[in-house]
Amino acid sequence: MVQSGLHLSRAPAEKKRVVAKEKHQLWPSEAAVSDVVGRLIEFWGFKRNMGRIWAVLFLSPEPLSAEDLRQALKLSSGAVSMTLNELSRWGVVRKVWVQGERKDFYTAEVQLWRMISRVFSEREKAEIVMAIEAFEEALAEVAKLRTSPDPKIRARAELQYDRIKQLLELAKLGKRLIETLLTTAKVDAEPLVRFLLRQQGPASGD
């Protein structure tokens, strides 16, 4: 009877360990999506693990802890912690409180349009503004040479002035496009995007 009692007392703990193991086991679909997002985010100039961790959180029906993510993706504790800090700084994951738990849990930003707009606002827009300033400075410098007494220098200066001006106009257009994107994102453009995709319909010949 004592052994039976011990067996019964161990059952809940054993069951809890099994549930925990299942919780940290990614489905094939989750593993595939996290790898794809990781590659895409790396192509965009970020670290691959940022995309992998965000994707796992995005697909999870409940918040996950750093330990959950470490087990799911077979990463080191340090790598998970560092990546979560970076993702939090970009505003694409956030800490949430889970009742009865002392450790931190995380959830992903699920509004994709808003998430992309944050990245554009903090990185792409800043780069374009820097490019515009550099093109304007270069344009001012080469403009001084357009009145050179040397015809070769004048011809070279005219050519460069015209082409740098084209680059400047392109950069300004990019800045306007990003600003439009950011303005639209404030009112959540995802319904508009879905509407536009529906309007396109199937491609001809399909």
What would you say about this model in short?
With 206 residues, this protein is mainly alpha-helical. It has eight helices and three strands, in the order H-H-H-E-H-H-E-E-H-H-H.
Number of discrete domains: 2
CATH fold-level assignment of the largest domain: Arc Repressor Mutant, subunit A
Radius of gyration over C-alpha positions, nearest whole angstrom: 27 Å
Helical content class: over 70%
**Second CATH tier, the architecture of the largest domain:** Orthogonal Bundle
The number of helices is 8
Structural class: mainly alpha
Strand line-up across the major sheet:
1-3-2
What is the CATH class name of the largest domain?
Answer: Mainly Alpha
List the helices and strands and how they pair.
Layout lengths: L1 H22 L4 H16 L4 H12 L4 E2 H8 L3 H14 L2 E4 L8 E4 L3 H32 L7 H35 L4 H11 L6
Antiparallel strand pairs: 1-3, 2-3
Helix pairs in contact: 2-3, 3-5, 4-5, 6-7
